[in-house]
Amino acid sequence: MFFNKTLWAAMAAALLLSACGGKAPEKKAAAAPGAPLPARAFKLTPEAFPEIYEATGTVRARTTSALSARIMGHVREVRVQAGDRVSAGQVVAVLDAREIETGLSAAEAMRAEARSGLPEVENAIAAAQAQFALAEATWKRMKSLHDQKSITEQEMDEANARLSMARANHQMALAKKKQLEEKIRQADSGLERVSLQKGYAEVTAPFAGIVIERKAEPGMLASPGMPIVVIEQAAGYRLEAAVEEGMLSRVRAGAKATVQLDALDRAIETRVSEIVPAMDAMSRTFTAKLDLPASPQIRSGLFGRARFTLGEREALTIPAAALEREGQLERAYVLDNGMARARLVTTGARHGDRLEVLSGLAAGETVLAGVDGRLRDGARIEVRP
Question: Using alpha carbons only, what angle is made at residue 233 by residues 229 and 236, rounded to the nearest 5 degrees?
């Protein structure tokens, strides 16, 4: 019975080989048991490692302005939407100014009326001046005759009266001109005030920027101080990072820093432009402000990290390629008598492709980095350059 089963198995294998062209299916060559695994070796020695402090923060605009109405009136139109870019002086909203236009017409009419009286006053001054000159010349002749006893006292008194009256008429004409000029100045001032109010019916952007919020819609009643749109100045962003109070003496204005924003694929080299020394009572942090370059990708509200280089210190480091992560666990392999031995390690800061080792490894040990990622505990190792 056993022979028959063996015979039938051999026949079935022969038929299978015949169907496949007489060849058995090829299998991928596997590494021989105990074959050494290729790896690169790194001797652990203390080396200078930058001391870096990292603080997180939020991007904010250097200048933000809420554009509001200066007069009361209904909103006739809002010409921008959130996200629109505006230039300095651009009209962003218009208020209903029909009442102001009526007042402007009345002010123009008052000024025209005041100015129309100027020719009449000028003529009155000229006539009064001529009368005064005639009366003065007559008085001089009468005075000479009076001194010669050629006219009576009555005639001299009449000459004095005519001169006084002519002088008074001339002064009165000059006074009327001053009154008219003052009236014209008041009319001009009223017209200028109403014209200015008409200009307030147009809400304009004080600088080039981006509209971040639209707060009014056509038909709404706007009052002085009521925000209509909010804009932030373009190319004026900075990261406001929260720094622990223990770093107040080490992070100062002018200090170099590197900023990393999730919205950008590059690091930004910058400096601390301003320190707000007042502490936040809840978080026990102060604010460091770092200027950012102009970029269409930068917006207020973005999350960012600021890294401050505070100096250097000695530390053990390993290449990032020598570390394996499995969940929250970090593992590295050391060379021990030609074999790989796994170690649980704890790493700290990263600088370039180097990781600081906080625990699990000691100076003088040799760390392995697998060439093809096949390192395992207890495997024989073939060290390659």
Answer: 150
